[in-house]
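Standup notes
- DV: blocked on the single-chain target, sequence here:
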Amino acid sequence: MSDPVTATAEAFQLAEGPLWDAARRRLLWVDILGGAVLEGRLHGGRIEVTARHDFDGMVGAVAVAADGTLLVAAQERLVVLHPDGRRENGPRVIPSGEARRLNDGGTDPAGRFLVGTLSLDGPSEREVLVRLETDGRLTELDGDLTLSNGLAWSADGSRMYSVDTVRGVVFARDYDPVTGAVGERRVHLRLDGGLPDGIALDAAEHLWVAVWGAGEVRRYAPDGTLADRLAVPAPHTSCVAFAGDDLRTLVITTATDGLDDEQRHAHPDSGRLFTTRVDVPGLPVPTWSSTL
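- DV (later): unblocked, structure below
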């Protein structure tokens, strides 16, 4: 595994949620504070921004359906963005006026979309992780989180991983992709020297974790032992995803948000996306099963 290379010319305030849309060979990601969903093309290790979809307020995550329709976690609710540019409001997750926003999200093996929340008004232990069901209802999986973050599923869909960032933990639980039934939540990893943010699984069932504040991506074996670590020249490493036709290009998002002037000067590429080639390909991410 080589050192990460700077992949975008543009730096973002809080780049997050990279996602490879294999059918259209495009990379999707969000700039949370910039209120935008971005599209890009891979050219070797570089990423060319090809489209930008702006929203009022912040944007937490994006998913893609088989036909290219996007499901966007806007600041407080889900929004459907059709390929022709039409937008439709989906379910509201956060009651109007609350100082909270939607954060990271992902699709389960059956194509259901899950998304979590974080507080914009100081410490919290009431943040939620919800799932959009096929009939449009929302089901709450967790209601006691400090900051809901990255999500991932094992290759057979029987295990779900989720991040609670402020607690510094990655949870695991049994998961039935057919019925959506979930087992008891348990601590899989407890990190130090930085906070766990976005995650992704590779084909060897190793978990890749972006570590906010450490400028690192760590790779953990299925038993939770640290297998590898990758230094990133940006302290606020926010998320990871596997991209490219062979899913062996690791895309790493970073942020300028929260850095002081001295840190920005020391890490001038903060906020840009980075890429590196890895030996083990990633697991493909299921498309969203459009129901809205």
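- Follow-up: The first strand starts at residue 5 and ends at 6.
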